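Dear H.,

Thanks for agreeing to be a second pair of eyes. The structure we're designing against is below in token form, covering all 268 positions.
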């Protein structure tokens, strides 16, 4: 336990921004705290044993405060490790790479007790992160759950795209644009789904979903350009004859991937 005098000494060293380059000698501390230099040195010996202060020898020497060593608490599922604080910026990319090798995905991450999205980690100052809790899931299980969601949603998206196209063809542009605006988020989700699962499928020797993703992304860009140019005829054709059909192709690929994952699970 530190004494009140030791707390005053530490506070004085902190307020003077003491460091190895700028130590504070016992005479200066004596005058500031109205304590004899010998008593200061006696207290410093105890604080050195506690690794709270260090001494710089020599004619321009003195004492300086040692910042407490902080640690980065990193918990991945049920495994807890501690690393040097401020290392999150280098540790996290290594964690992601290792999880990729283990075919795991991050489904939940909390930094300093606050949950963030995995793609929002870069917005947090790495130097401020002291505690990280990560929950993972096997890529196979994650893929199956995502495919189940896609099997329910993608037919609805496909029907919505065809409906938007029919409204454009019928000259009901205001209704069509309102419905298309609602579909944009779904299109972006589908694009992300095809991308992530396409890469996973490719590692299993099935590149077809990645090809679908490439087509889908190209068509999304073309649809965006048609919307900006207010070319409703081209946009309607893109929605009905390209994006809707590519969505259906992607759904077929996802079902093949599901069967492949489930088949591999039965073999094990």
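And this is the sequence the design step returned. I haven't edited it by hand at all.
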């Amino acid at each position: 336990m530190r004494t009140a005098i030791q707390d005053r000494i530490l506070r004085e060293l902190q307020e003077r921004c003491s460091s190895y380059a700028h130590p504070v000698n016992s005479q200066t501390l004596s005058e500031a705290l109205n304590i004899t230099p010998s008593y200061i040195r006696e207290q410093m010996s105890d604080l050195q044993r506690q690794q709270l202060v260090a001494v710089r020898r020599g004619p321009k020497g003195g004492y300086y405060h040692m910042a407490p060593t902080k640690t980065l608490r990193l918990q991945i599922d049920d495994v807890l490790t501690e690393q040097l604080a401020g290392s999150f910026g280098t540790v996290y990319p290594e964690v992601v790479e290792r999880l990729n090798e283990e075919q795991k995905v991050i489904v939940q991450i909390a930094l300093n007790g606050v949950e963030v999205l995995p793609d929002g980690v870069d917005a947090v100052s790495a130097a401020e992160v002291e505690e990280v809790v990560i929950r993972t899931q096997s890529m196979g299980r994650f893929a199956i759950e995502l495919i189940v969601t896609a099997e329910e949603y993608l037919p609805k998206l496909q029907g919505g795209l065809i409906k938007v196209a029919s409204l454009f063809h019928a000259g009901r542009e205001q209704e069509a644009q309102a419905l298309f605006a609602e579909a944009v988020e779904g299109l972006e989700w589908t694009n992300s789904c095809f991308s992530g699962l396409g890469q996973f499928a490719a590692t299993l020797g099935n590149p077809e979903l990645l090809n679908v993703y490439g087509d889908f992304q190209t068509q999304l860009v073309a649809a965006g350009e048609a919307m900006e140019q207010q070319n409703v005829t081209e946009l309607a054709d893109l929605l009905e004859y390209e994006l809707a059909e590519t969505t259906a192709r992607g759904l077929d690929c996802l079902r093949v991937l599901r069967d492949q994952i489930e088949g591999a699970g039965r073999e094990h």
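Two observations from my side: The chain has a mean pLDDT of 90. The radius of gyration is 31 Å.

Warmly,
E.
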